[in-house]
Specification:
It is a single-pass type I membrane protein. InterPro entries: Leu-rich_rpt (IPR001611), LRR_dom_sf (IPR032675). The chain contains 4 helices and 17 strands. With 323 residues, it is of the alpha/beta class. It folds into 2 domains: 242 residues, Alpha-Beta Horseshoe (Leucine-rich repeat, LRR (right-handed beta-alpha superhelix)); 53 residues. The protein is elongated and about 65 Å long.
């Protein structure tokens, strides 16, 4: 958090004992030097919030003691496939933050399989952030193996398909951000069992159906689900209806969107009633005006009476034929 300019150190000597390297919040440019692998004791690397322009630094995989890796808010780009060189890459990593860059492709499933420290519940702070990138594809099922995860932020990407039900296995999860993606389908009912979840943001996707029940999920308001027009539940003030054994959201044409059939029965809506009333009113005014101008309503009375008698005769004839 200074105004340091220039590049990161280009040379790290062998056999050094550096454990923590915080360079975040400066104006550093260039790349991360591969010679950083000489820092075999390094536990924390944070060059976040700079202007580093590079691809993902795969050479960091050999730093076996690395617990915190923060590369956020730089100009990094390309794929994050990994592991590239080391099968036990990032085995001690607890914080993995590559948010606000230009990474693309699928989420780094290979690394998810290596994060042994995140698969154990022995740590107090464990989180993963890939926010504001260009990741696409599905959330991998193996995300359910990262049982120690407390914060997961995958928002503002182009992730597709359904939200993985395996997220419901992450019982330590306190914060889940999946907003501004392309997720479809229903919200997994398993999320209703995350009793420690304090922050939930699923807004601006294409989700549908009922919002899961559960004591914790019920505490979230409409902002957690904004931008999903086909969701239903009390949080979004849209009722659900049952189709067989499944609940579905009411479509706009059948819920609170001016549907005529809900008021006057099928095929006879308020519009038809209004049109009939309007025509009758205009006819009555016209007749009244004629009577008033002629000041001789007798002819009008005789016309109405003749019409009435004619209708009665027709009715009697029809009844006689039926009998």
């Amino acid at each position: 958090m200074n105004n340091l300019l220039g590049t990161m150190p280009l040379t790290f000597s062998e056999d050094n004992s550096l454990q923590y390297l915080y360079l975040g919040g400066n104006e550093l440019e260039g790349k991360i030097s591969p010679s950083i692998i000489n820092c075999t004791m390094l536990e924390v690397l944070d060059p976040g919030n700079n202007k580093i322009e590079d691809t993902f630094p795969y050479f960091l995989e050999v730093l076996l003691e690395l617990q915190i890796l923060v590369l956020k808010s730089n100009k990094l780009q390309g794929f994050v496939n990994g592991p590239a060189t080391y099968e036990s890459a990032f085995s001690k990593l607890q914080i993995f933050d590559i948010s606000d860059n230009n990474f693309s492709g699928s989420l780094p499933t290979g690394y998810f399989n290596c994060l042994e420290a995140v698969m154990s519940s022995d740590h107090n702070t464990v989180y993963m952030r890939t926010t504001d990138n260009n990741f696409n594809g599905e959330i991998p099922k193996v995300i359910g193996n990262l049982k120690a995860l407390q914060q997961l932020n995958l928002s503002h990407n182009s992730l597709t398909s359904h939200i993985q039900s395996s997220l419901g296995i992450l019982t330590d999860l306190k914060s889940l951000h999946l907003s501004s993606n392309l997720f479809t389908g229903r919200i997994p009912t398993q999320l209703g069992g995350l009793t420690f979840l304090a922050i939930l943001n699923l807004s601006h996707n294409n989700l549908e159906g009922p919002i899961p029940t559960g004591e914790q999920v019920s505490t979230f308001n409409a902002t957690s689900f904004d931008g999903n027009l086909r969701l239903c539940g009390f949080q979004v003030v849209k009722e659900c209806y049952r189709d067989g054994d499944q609940e579905q959201s009411l479509t706009p044409s059948s819920y609170n969107e001016g549907d005529d059939s809900t008021l006057f029965g099928d095929g006879f809506g308020w519009k038809a009633v209004a049109m009939g009333y309007g025509c009758g009113f205009l006819l009555g005014v016209a007749m009244g005006y004629v009577v008033f101008r002629t000041k001789n309503p007798a002819w009008f009375h005789r016309m109405v009476e003749d019409t009435w008698n004619l209708n009665k005769k027709k009715t009697r004839k029809k009844v006689g034929r039926r009998n």
